[in-house]
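Fold this sequence, please.
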Amino acid sequence: MKLTLIAVLLLLVKWSDAQYSIQGRIVDGETQQPLEGISVFLSNTTKGSATNHKGEFVLDNLKVGKYELVITAVNFEEHILPIQVTEKNETLTVKLTRKATVLNEVTVEPYDKDGWDKWGDSFKTYLVGSSHLAKNCILKNPDAIKFQYNSKLNRLRAFSNERLLFDNTDLGYRVIYLLSKFEIDFNDATFSFRGYPVFEELRPKSKTEMARWAKLRSDIYRGSLHHFIRSLYFNRSSSDGFTIREVKFITPEESRRVKNILKSMHRSEDQAGVGGWANEKDSMDYYVKVKNLSFNDNMVVVRDNISGDNLLTRSTDPNSKSLFFKGELQILYLNKKIPIEYANTLPVNRRNEAIQSEISLRIDTPVAIYPNGTYYNGLNLLIDGYWAWSERIATMLPGDYVDGK
């Protein structure tokens, strides 16, 4: 089944060598009393802390830039605060609101009482992934998840009022994940999710294990969406091993249309000689590609070897660039072959081919990209192919990860 992933970015960071910090105080919005033990972290990073008895926290060793500060606590509504880290930061004061109800989103429709038994495997496959790393990425608190299936819409949604805890022993991280959205639309095979992760380094048992983690992290990073966005920002996508193409997916209707045009052109040629082809010369390459598609292929290359510069436009934010394009792009990473787990999901065995993914924009709105490989307005970015299969929690790296291989 073809799967399209609707990707969502939750972290924006400016690339800078300077290190700064943010500090703040968390209080109860009703009583104004300080709250101790409140979890505070910057989404998609390794930066997290908890408030002391005065409700105070400090996050240090930060790069200048824009982040999303996430504040969570039992019995309080989570608080997501966009924050700009600069050379001079004032102390923040955040007032938390007590929760009025539990799982507000599922009060209209009841959630499944045996939800994990029914949908647990689907949840793990879609959110954690099905790569070889998913086997050792363990959800420690599955009971925290509630499911709601709408049979009329053929849609599955998941909710949680607790932070989900994933131990990824292959990559050496504990991922603490605040799930904001999880939805599978089985009708059009699309999956969309939103979440706020923070990463904690696991303690290696030996230098050998630490080296293994470093190698696996590098292997996962290379060829990932994270890697591509970072390469695109610095205009080195080609030198980093990426090839960008404009492609078009061919529907059965389009295939019939092209075949009818070719038949008509052949008739014109028979009647008028070579001149019958002349008016269509700009489309002939496309027509021939469509005609020659094999039974298992439904995509043709419209333009090859597109420069990354052609996809970027000026941004109003000096710390970002705007990714904008028409149609659909195919991204090949020539330095990695399709893994067997992904190959088994394809109609044709393509294990010897380089990994390839497709991206498109849902609406004509740019996506802001940042130098550390993150992006904003992610609901506008549709991902298909290898990335739709691979970009999951089991292969998730923090936004501040730096490839040291």
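Residues 1-16, 102-107, 272-282 have pLDDT under 50 and may be disordered. DSSP finds eight helices and 23 strands in the chain.
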